[in-house]
Specification:
Layout lengths: L1 H25 L21 E7 L5 H17 L1 H6 L2 E7 L7 H5 L6 E6 L8 E3 L1 H6 L4 H16 L9
Parallel strand pairs: 1-2
Antiparallel strand pairs: 1-3, 3-4
Helix pairs in contact: 2-6
C-alpha cells in the first residue's frame, strides 16, 4: 500500500510541476491574433467637427442623441458637410485607443462635442453633454438647441483651402 501511495504522490507532483512551469512560460503573453485592432481616432480635420461620442453599450438614449444630431446636420447643414466646412464623426470614447478623449473633452457619458479644428483656433471645443441629455425627450427643443450651437460655431468658418 505504501508504494501505491508513493506512486500517486509522485504523479500528482509531476502534474503540478508541469502546470506551474507551463503557466510561468505563458504568463503575460497576449495572443489576441483573432481580434483585429480597432481603427484609431482620425486626426482632427481642418474644419469644424461635430463629434458624437458614445460608449461601449450604445443604449437607446445614446442612439437617439446620435440620430437627432445627425438629422439636424443633414437637414440644416448639408452644404457645409459637403464642402468640408463641417465634419460629422461618431467615435467610441471607451475604446482603449480612444480613452484620452474622456479627459480631453471632459466626458462621462455619451454626448456631442463640437471642436474647431481650423488652423489658429487651438482646437477650441464645447461639450454639449448636459444640455443634450436634458433635452433628449423634447425632440424639437433638442434640434433647435443643436442647430443654434452649430450655427454659432460655424460663424466665420472659411472654406478649406483647395489643395
Amino acid at each position: 500500500m505504501g508504494v501505491k501511495r508513493l506512486l500517486i504522490t509522485a504523479v500528482a507532483a509531476f502534474i503540478m510541476a508541469f502546470l506551474i512551469a507551463y503557466g510561468l512560460l505563458h504568463w503575460g503573453r497576449s495572443d489576441n491574433r483573432d481580434v483585429p485592432p480597432p481603427p484609431p481616432v482620425e486626426a482632427l480635420p481642418e474644419s469644424l467637427v461635430v463629434y458624437c461620442f458614445h460608449d461601449d453599450q450604445r443604449g437607446p438614449q445614446c442612439r437617439k442623441i446620435e440620430k437627432l444630431t445627425h438629422e439636424v446636420l443633414k437637414k440644416d447643414f448639408g452644404s457645409q458637410l459637403q464642402d468640408g466646412r463641417l465634419k460629422w464623426l461618431v467615435v467610441n470614447y471607451e475604446h482603449p485607443n480612444n480613452t484620452f478623449i474622456i479627459e480631453e473633452y471632459d466626458i462621462d457619458k455619451p454626448c456631442i462635442v463640437v471642436v474647431d479644428g481650423r488652423p489658429g483656433k487651438n482646437r477650441v471645443w464645447k461639450n454639449h453633454q448636459l444640455k443634450v441629455w436634458e433635452l433628449l425627450d423634447e425632440e424639437p427643443a433638442f434640434k433647435d438647441y443643436m442647430r443654434g450651437e452649430i450655427q454659432e460655431a460655424l460663424k466665420d468658418v472659411p472654406l478649406p483651402d483647395a489643395r
